[in-house]
Specification:
alpha/beta, 13 helices, about 15% strand
């Protein structure tokens, strides 16, 4: 596409994005410096570009070549924050008690126990754990174990029914070493009064956690996740680039950055893969991406069956356009690893891809189970959805921030009015530190916390 940035283009019609120059039918349309699809007909300069004249280029499993990436070593900044230092050396930014059902049949009891026990007890409920087989069941088990190990939980009650496929003994084996004072187990079929016994265990867990105190710890101990949902045409212009700058700031302190939504990198893979710290990381990331492309193909779906209706209404026309905006949340942090379902993020700094779909609920659960302490969640349409860990909502536009003050923690839309991006980056970074030290996010104040587990198997 021929772009002349010094040309004045007269807008011909109402819309959300426009051609800067004449585009021939079949010619690639460029945004963010990369193709977002091709024109399906002639598009004159100033004309609207949308789903009526733009089509994706995506197909197949993709082909990328490894190029060594020269990682700059500028040293690690020595910032600290106040967090809960755990016995294993990890750090938590909350000190809650989590009730985690092994099976959906125990979810109702988990909710009732949390309600009766009160703060800081929280039930993390889901509908799975029974009637699952093989890898599908293993995915559930690994995600639940990842939640059990999370350092934001000062104590965990793993709640089973007793007859489910997800047996308590299998969960204990997969969990590995644990502190018996902080991780407890209860099978509902094994006790006469599950409420009395459950409440008794929760009181014991609360007593243990009550002795925990915040202490200064390095920012390098943090794992910060980045996520977008309900994206719009401003996502790749305001909120996502801003979060990318904040990700770079945390990486400079040695923190880890987590990103998932693998199908929402389709069409922008080259940007991430060009920053792999090794051939091994490249190969694992490519395998993860191709596995998800093949997942779509195996189910008879096109790999570009995205964006969602809400995305399109917000001004995003193809998956490439969505993806090129999406990956900006990682800034220019070097890619250092690709984590499978339920894998824990290593202590080494850098960017880590976490396997998982773009579905918001599944994605925030995967990020939490991998060890994310908090999630920076950008949105252009708005969503109340939050993970069990603090989830900061960053709006792409100011009208959303004003309309949904009880959802939105930070307004990136002011960038459209000329706000200084470096100052805004510093403000959002400091907001993250304040939340890490105990300030409640809007989602926490509203009581929002959900989990969902990726499912791709037979239900008995």
């Amino acid at each position: 596409m021929r772009i002349h940035s010094d040309d004045n283009v007269e807008v011909r019609e109402d819309g959300q994005k426009y051609a800067l120059t004449d585009i021939r039918s079949g010619e690639n349309v460029i945004k963010y410096g990369f193709p977002i699809g091709h024109a399906t007909k002639e598009i004159p300069a100033g004309a609207r570009v949308d789903t009526s004249n733009l089509k994706t280029n995506l197909s197949g499993l993709g082909d990328w070549q490894y190029t060594p990436f020269e990682k700059q070593d500028n040293g690690i900044e020595k910032g600290t924050f106040s967090g809960y230092l755990r016995a294993d050396g990890r750090v938590g930014i909350r000190n809650e008690i989590w009730i985690i059902p092994t099976v959906g049949c125990a979810a109702g009891v988990a909710r009732l126990l949390a309600e009766k026990s009160g703060s800081p007890v929280r039930a993390l409920c889901h509908p799975y754990g029974c009637s699952q087989l093989g890898d599908d069941l293993l995915t559930t088990q690994k995600i639940l174990c990842g939640l059990c190990r999370h350092p934001n939980a000062g104590g965990v009650l793993l709640l089973g029914l007793g007859c489910e496929n997800n047996r308590m003994e299998d969960m204990q084996a997969l969990l590995g070493e644990y502190d018996p004072e902080r991780v407890r187990f209860l099978c509902l079929q094994d006790c006469e009064d599950e409420m009395a016994e459950g409440l008794s265990i929760l009181e014991e867990l609360k007593a243990v956690a009550a002795g925990d105190r915040r202490t200064p710890v390095p920012i390098s101990k943090l794992a910060v996740a980045v996520k977008c949902g309900g994206s719009d045409g401003y996502s790749g212009i305001t909120a996502n680039p801003l979060v990318g700058l904040v990700a770079e700031a945390f990486a400079a302190h040695g923190a880890r950055i987590l990103m998932t939504e693998i199908p929402e990198a389709f069409g922008a893979e080259e940007i991430l893969l060009s920053r792999c710290d090794s051939r091994r990381t490249f190969d694992r990331a490519v395998a993860m991406i191709r596995n998800f492309r093949n997942y779509f193909i195996r189910h008879g779906e096109g790999i570009a069956d995205n964006p969602s209706p809400g995305n399109i209404a917000g001004g995003i026309s193809t998956l490439e356009e969505k993806s090129l905006g999406c990956v900006q949340k990682a800034g220019k942090v070097p890619l250092c690893g690709a984590l499978g379902y339920g894998d824990s993020v290593p202590e080494a700094p850098g960017l880590y891809l976490v396997d998982g779909p773009g579905n918001d609920q599944v994605a925030i659960t995967n990020l939490t189970a991998a060890g994310a302490h908090l999630i920076l969640f950008t949105t252009g349409r708005g969503t109340p959805l939050c993970a069990p860990v603090p989830t900061l909502k960053i709006s792409t536009n100011t009208p959303l921030a004003q309309k949904k003050r009880h959802w939105i923690d930070f307004d990136a839309g002011v960038l459209l009015g000329g706000a200084d991006k470096d100052q805004l980056c510093n403000a959002l970074f400091e907001k993250c530190i304040a939340v890490a030290e105990g300030e409640e996010s809007k989602g926490e104040l509203g009581g929002y916390a959900d989990i969902a587990i990726f499912k791709d198997g037979v239900t008995l």
